[in-house]
Design goal:
Elements (H helix, E strand, L loop, with lengths): L8 E4 L2 E5 L5 E5 H7 L4 H4 L7 E5 L7 E7 L4 E11 L4 E10 L6 E11 L4 E9 L5 E10 L4 E10 L3 E10 L4 E11 L2 E10 L5 E11 L3 E10 L4 E10 L5 E10 L5 E9 L3 H9 L4 H12 L3
Parallel strand pairs: 1-5, 4-6, 5-7, 6-8, 7-9, 8-10, 9-11, 10-12, 11-13, 12-14, 13-15, 14-16, 15-17, 16-18, 17-19
Antiparallel strand pairs: 1-2, 3-4
């Protein structure tokens, strides 16, 4: 996303700055969708106060972009979003959430549901950049219908003091998901909980975590795959600790409820390699520059 002005939906604090028309689809406030389309209430629950509704009904001609900012100290946002992708479509989404320059404290809570219908594929890049005193809690559920696919990347480039990320993804017959969570944590209490449920025959899922703990950070990552049918899944959880006052806990969990399912996992917590540091020093970098280069490669999508 070049800037917030390029977004189809842009909100600052509690004010919608832009809500552009979406070709081949519908974009409106969640509360308006709740009133106009009664079927959305099944997903939205009670009438939302804020948030957006995106309904992609035909093949779009480019990515869909959303941007949410906090510009005023102590602003409390509570979003409830809904995205529905109709059958046989191939779409890209980009979402950005974060503080504007000079605002160091805010509260951002967002929950939502993303429904991907049969034979559709979605690539979704979700980027967060928050200032040090903020509290952030995204919580999303995904339903992948028959033979659909999702490639979802959540990345945080600046972490707040408290960040809790939750994702639950349910895959029906033949559906496929690749989930990536990338976080460079500084002075942060970061909790991530992700669960992939392989409900349908032939479904598959990969969960990939790359987490860095530095400057007095505490990370707890719980990653889970449940196989309820003949299916396949893999958990890949890796973390680096660069600060003696930081801490990481990785909790990979695999649950198999079908004899023909295959699920694997790997988890590791390590430090920056002395061999790599020494090599980069010989190339003219100081220690901090070398660490930054190594961690940037570790977080590469």
């Amino acid at each position: 996303m070049k800037s917030a002005k390029d977004a189809h939906f842009w909100q600052v604090d509690h004010k919608i700055k832009k809500m552009a028309a979406v070709r081949h689809g519908v974009l409106m406030r969640s509360r308006d969708a709740w009133e106009k389309h009664s079927w959305t209430r099944e997903y939205l629950g009670e009438k939302p106060k804020e948030g957006y509704f995106v309904w992609v009904r035909e093949q779009p001609d480019g990515p869909l972009l959303t941007c949410v900012n906090i510009a005023t100290k102590n602003t409390r946002q509570k979003f409830r979003n809904l995205l529905v992708v109709e059958e046989g479509l191939k779409i890209e989404l980009e979402g950005f959430c974060g503080n504007t320059e000079g605002c160091i404290k805010g509260y951002h809570r967002a929950s939502g549901k993303i429904i991907i219908k049969k034979n559709s594929s979605v690539k979704y890049k979700h980027v967060h950049a928050w200032e040090e005193e903020s509290v952030v809690e995204p919580n999303y559920e995904f339903l992948l219908q028959e033979n659909s696919s999702l490639d979802y990347v959540y990345k945080t480039s600046r972490t707040p003091k408290s960040l809790t990320v939750r994702n639950k993804i349910t895959c029906l017959k033949g559906a496929k998901v690749k989930l990536q969570i990338l976080a460079d944590c500084k002075n942060t209490r970061f909790t991530t909980e992700d669960e992939i449920v392989l409900q349908g025959e032939g479904s598959s899922g990969i969960s990939r975590l790359r987490l860095i703990a530095r400057k007095d950070s505490d990370i707890k990552a719980c990653s889970k795959i449940v196989a309820k049918s003949p299916s396949s899944g893999h958990l890949d959880c890796q973390s680096l600790v660069t600060d003696k006052n930081s801490r990481v806990t990785l909790v990979p969990e695999v649950v198999c409820e079908d004899k023909d399912a295959q699920i694997t996992h790997e988890a590791s917590i390590g430090k920056v390699s002395e061999e790599q540091l020494n090599y980069l020093r010989t190339r003219g970098l100081n220690e901090q520059q070398a660490i930054n280069l190594i961690t940037a490669g570790f977080l590469k999508v």
